[in-house]
Every structure is written in structure tokens, then in C-alpha cells.
Amino acid sequence: MSFFFLYAQVQLKEIIEELPDKMDTELVESGSNLSVGQKQLVCLARAILRKNQILIIDEATAHVDPSTDELIQKMIREKFAQCTVLTIAHRLSTIIDSDRIMVLDSGRLEEYDEPYVLLQNRDSLFYKMVQQLGKAEAAALTETAKQVSPLWEL
């Protein structure tokens, strides 16, 4: 896969073309010559190129705009569909279509199951977190969890 094709996929092509030395631009320490979203997209492109079988994502979309969040989530689902992806996130929409969700409270494992299964238990911490988002958002997240659940297909 060429760098240019990959950068176009993660929507960095225009940004790279605007840099002083294009692809040869040196990123300064901590990537301070890029926005938070741009840095996340560069990291995503690097992960895609490495073709790792395990991807650990820690708050990858916490400080990005909604369109960049959507792009990052889409690329992760497409490019890492056959990989193990561990996602650490507070934004529940980021993880609702995961195979399994692990809920930690004060560093302790409290729950671990499929999202739809967790949402069926009104005593579940995950259920309570989803409900705190409001009726409309809770309904949307529950529907997404239901659609991706293998149990729903039975």
C-alpha cells in the first residue's frame, strides 16, 4: 500500500500537501505542528502500515471533532476487522459495537460481556452509564448493540 493512498484514506492528503516540505516535513517533538486530530490520523496510518494483529487504542477520539471521530472509528473497523482491538474509552458510542465490554470501577473489573447482554441487566454499571446519556442516546446505543449482537441473530 502506498503512503499517498493510505494518507488519502485517512484524509491526511490535503494536510500533507499544505506542509512546507510535503511528505518530507519533519514533525516536531510531540507533533505540535499538527492538530490533535491530525496526530491521531497519523498514528492510525502508522498502525495500518504496521499490520499489527493487536491494536491498543487509548482514548483515540477523546479530543477530536465528530467527523474525525467517525473517520477514525470507520477506519479501525475496516482495517482491523481481523485483529484484536483493545479500546480504552469513556465515550460509549466508541465501544458500543465491540464484541465484549469490560467495565472497570476504581481499577477493579466489575463487568465483562457483550454490550447487548450488559444492557439487558438494569443493575449493570454499563446499563446505568448508558441511561445517564438520556433516552434518545440510550435508545440509539441499545439499538446498535442489539444489531451487532450474535444473540440477536438467533
The beta-strand count equals: 4
> Could you estimate the helical fraction of the residues in percent?
40-55%
Strand content: 5-15%
Q: Which stretches are poorly predicted, pLDDT < 50 over at least 5 residues? A: none
Order of helices and strands: HHHEHEHEEHHH
Structural class of the secondary structure composition? alpha+beta
CATH top level label of the largest domain: Alpha Beta
Architecture of the largest domain, according to CATH?
Answer: 3-Layer(aba) Sandwich
Shape: elongated
The quaternary organization reads as single chain
Number of domains: 2
Tally of DSSP helical segments: 8
CATH superfamily of the largest domain: P-loop containing nucleotide triphosphate hydrolases
CATH topology of the largest domain: Rossmann fold
Radius of gyration: 18 Å
Mean pLDDT: 83
Give the N-to-C terminal Cα separation.
39 Å
Sheet bearing the most strands, described?
Answer: 2 strands, parallel
Protein name: ABC transporter domain-containing protein
Keywords: ATP-binding, Nucleotide-binding
Domain ABC transporter: 9-62
GO cellular component, one term: plasma membrane
